[in-house]
Specification:
Number of strands: 6
CATH class of the largest domain: Alpha Beta
Distance between the termini: 61 Å
Shape: extended
Order of helices and strands: EEEHHEHEEHHHH
Radius of gyration: 22 Å
CATH topology of the largest domain: Rossmann fold
Strand content: 15-25%
Largest sheet: 6 strands, antiparallel
Number of helices: 7
Number of domains: 2
Helix content: 40-55%
């Protein structure tokens, strides 16, 4: 994907920067303390090599604290898809027309949302809907050990992350992999229990 433009909202000195066009050589010009660094930092935190989350307590604009929300989009980026990505998207959506440009948003909570045209996925799930679905899942039946609970929580977190990021092709492989991980954890517990009974 090639970055074409981005927009910063409710971040440091910016309520809304408007769209900032990006080219292979982009120059930001302005006086000291005019917001150049903030504009770049918001984009840097969009998807850094080393994770660096947005901080709502330190980076939300002053004077607007009463409107703080983890769901507030900080950076909205517009990308041009390369031909290979367009072909892959066509396979996933069964759409005949080509999608050349799409937008991706990231909020203070660290969630990504791919903003496809509405007619591409008319029944798409919003990240907030995914969170609600995950919260509504039944609790693990007792008795379940701490180690198993931790593994199950990790599986659930991974499922939610992939769904929020729109990586649905990877989700289809998770059930088998998670099943294997949890079964291994149960097997380890059973072996330990058997050894304990034998030694006692």
């Amino acid at each position: 994907m090639e970055l074409l433009a981005y927009r910063v909202q409710m971040y440091k000195c910016y309520i809304d920067s408007g769209w900032v066009d990006v080219s292979p050589l982009t120059v930001l010009v302005g006086k000291n303390e005019s917001g150049k660094t903030a504009l770049l930092k918001a984009l840097h935190k969009f998807n850094p090599f080393v994770p660096e989350p947005y901080s709502i307590s330190r980076e939300w604009p002053r004077g607007h604290r009463d409107k703080q929300s983890e769901e507030q989009i900080v950076c909205l980026a517009r990308f041009r898809l390369i031909p290979e990505e367009q072909e892959r998207l066509q396979e996933l959506t069964n759409q005949l027309g080509q999608l050349e440009v799409l937008e991706v948003a990231k909020d203070y909570g660290g969630r990504f949302e791919v903003l496809f045209p509405q007619d591409l996925f008319p029944d798409k799930i919003h990240p907030n809907d995914i969170d609600e679905i995950l919260r509504g899942l039944p609790s693990l039946p007792a008795p379940v050990g701490d180690s198993f609970q931790k593994r199950a929580a990790d599986c659930l977190e991974e499922t939610g992350r992939l769904a929020r990021e729109g990586r649905f092709s990877e989700l289809s492989d998770l059930r088998t992999r998670h099943q294997t991980v949890l079964q291994q954890r149960l097997l380890v517990k059973a072996i330990r229990s058997a050894i304990t009974k034998t030694l006692s």
